[in-house]
Amino acid sequence: MDSDWPEEDSRVDRLVRGLKDFILGHPERLRALHRWLNAVLRGAAIGFCLRGGLHVVSLAFALARSKRSKQRQTRQQSLWEKLTETGRYTAFLGALAGVFVGVDEGIAAIWGRTRTAAWRAFAAGLACGPTLLLTGSGSHNSLAIYVLLRGLVLLLGYSWILAPQTMPTAYINFLNYHGGKQLYHYQAVRELTTRNAQKLPPAPLKSLADTRHADFCRTRPCSFVHPDRGCNENLIAFLPAAYARALPVYLPVYFLPAILVHRRRLLDSKAGPEILAKVGLGALRSSAFLALYCAFAWRGACAGFQLTDSCTPVSIPATCWTGGLALFAEKKSRRMELALYVLSRAVESFALCLGQWGYVRQELLPGRLDVCMFSLATACILHCYSDAHGQHRDVFRSKYLNVLDFVLGSTGLELGSICHHPSTRDLLAPHIRRISSLARSLERISQDADMEEPDTPRGSFEAGISAFRVHTSMDESR
After folding, report:
1. Are residues 386 and 361 in the same domain?
2. What is the pLDDT of residue 434?
3. Nearest alpha carbon to residue 275 among 285, 264, 286
4. Do 261 and 401 touch, CB atoms closer than 8 A?
5. Is residue 454 one of the residues assigned to a domain?
6. Could you tell me if 326 and 385 lie in one domain?
7. 371 assigned to some structural domain
């Protein structure tokens, strides 16, 4: 039995040596390996920082809003869910970048860079689409359509109130929260709309049975949606609270990418304050958009209820379009992105509504349609990004192009021999040197303190500080 181990070890050693010789013995293969490693690390880092940063900010605001002990278990569950989601998105973006670079380099190595230049990135984009499965078992149709299309506020209002099952749970929770009402308010509006569509006489609503509106018996919901206030008064009172709810959404959305993309310029005395001012203004402006969007949508719905003296499946989508007027609060470069984002949500919801209404059979739709759409989306985007040696890169905005270059490689595109410059090691090297220098300085201070016996604690502290300064200056001079 023991005699078999050396033979097995020798086989493994031969395999390892063979792989090393195959990769390290060829400069082009070594470049491809370095590009793949850099892409995986950077993609994973972006997923961790963006998703994790959003959750950190949301948890901080949640803790600030509530200190009650009975919500401690709920917060712990929420923390675990957010950690899990952060890990999933870290794996998703790392795998997406790794699969794309791996397939891109593999095709180039097998069939040649010149022969495959026109379609290689398209094929690699198709291959990396299934990495979307790493984000969890739930479908991501809206994400896939958003990437593919890049509003239909009417259908959104209908789906939110009357068919919430046709939208992702997370998005429904988002709308419920920023709608500024209690859950029973939305349930009561849905119940009232269904009764009016069936032409039933006014009667108390089951959704309001345990509330102070249990005696409600009308055909329009204004009296329990904003009691003790008129519709216009409610619009004015709604805005400050809506703006406070919107700020935690957009602060991390603006500041985290700025830290990642402009990490060096932020430390500059001239460029740093200018960048922070633009980022802060953008966050404030987008928060105003979301607050106005919700306020105008409610006011439009109230206007429809007043005009028709009813609440029906037609009046809600026909009047919620007023929320789209808030788009003018955003800058022009953001308006198309927001419109396409809302369009992606609406298309997803409309497709599911068609199945619910019986116009399309559910078995005809693929089980994970979002993966198919996402694969096609990434293929189209990455085809424009790097196929034909990058001749179509001018269709991207500079900020998107900078992110793609940072993750997938920024130099050598015109030759088909892509690499990261600077590499991830080069980016981390200055920080590692600083940490090492600090560790050496602290070690020297500790050694000096052991050798000397100061008379007073004050003298020991001052001696330590002076020694730290001397050692730090010596390290910097080196």
Report:
1. no
2. 84
3. 264
4. no
5. yes
6. no
7. no
Report the number of distinct structural domains present in the chain: 3
261 and 303 housed in the same domain = yes
Residue 359 has pLDDT above 60, yes or no: yes
The pLDDT, as a whole number, for residue 188 is: 92
Tell me the average pLDDT of the chain. Answer: 77
Q: Name the amino acid, one letter, at 287.
A: S
Mean pLDDT over 291-317 rounds to 87
Burial 50-89 (b: 16+ CB within 10 A, else e): bbbbbbebeeebeeeeeeeeeeeeeeeeeeeebeebbebb
In a domain, 372, yes or no: no
Q: Same domain, yes or no, for 168 and 239?
A: yes
pTM of this structure: 0.55
Residue 344 forms part of a structural domain = yes
Rounded to whole angstroms, the Cα distance separating 179 from 297 reads 9
Let me know whether 244 and 291 are in one domain. Answer: yes
If one compares 351 and 309, the residue with the highest pLDDT of the two is: 309
Domain co-membership, 242 together with 360 = yes
Q: How far apart are CA 156 and CA 223, in angstroms?
A: 24
342 and 391 in one domain?
no
CA distance 379 to 207: 47
Give the range of the structural domain holding residue 39, as residue numbers without chain letter.
4-139+377-421
Residues 131 and 184 in one domain: no
| 422 cis-preceded (ω within 30 degrees of 0) | yes
Residue 378 has pLDDT above 90, yes or no: no
